[in-house]
Amino acid sequence: MRKSTFRPQLLNYNELISAAANMHDVNSAVAWFDHLEKENLQPNVISFNAVLSAAAKKGALDISVALYHRMEAASVQPDSYTFNTLISAGARAGSGISAAGEWLQIMKSACIKPNEATYNALMDVAAKHQESLAAERWFGELVAEGWRPSAVSWKTLVAASVNCGDLPSAEKSLKAMAANNFQPDAALCFKEL
User: Where are the PPR repeats (predicted)?
Assistant: First the structure.
């Protein structure tokens, strides 16, 4: 019987890490990431982002932050996805809007421009922490930066107002949403009620 000479490449490991992340299996994602390094392969931004995604989906902020520091130590340049994922990890972990704001500042200091997904993640943190003013501020920044708010942006803004019990602001946002040709879905309208 012939012995296989196949040696997994970085792409193969990235696919395995991503598959684990899609299953919300942070332990397997980290294990594949560690195995990649043991095979003397250099992880790239895709490798780091995939394992960060797994950690974020579980709200494992400690793992996410440790991975970010490993990324820095490996001189791998983060991208907007990296920071969006770190902000989302913070939202799931309950770290609050100040931590999300810190990640935004780190992102900007790394000369990475926040995008619509960044602002949606920031607004999600605000909505989860009942900070409608922060959500409104980040929605305003999204527009000021030239991004067109998506249905997700509008829904997150409305959710922040509803979570705070600020129904007049929620109604105002729903009207603005409709004026911008976005129709709220039944779940959003039910939440407002």
Answer: 44-78, 79-114, 115-149
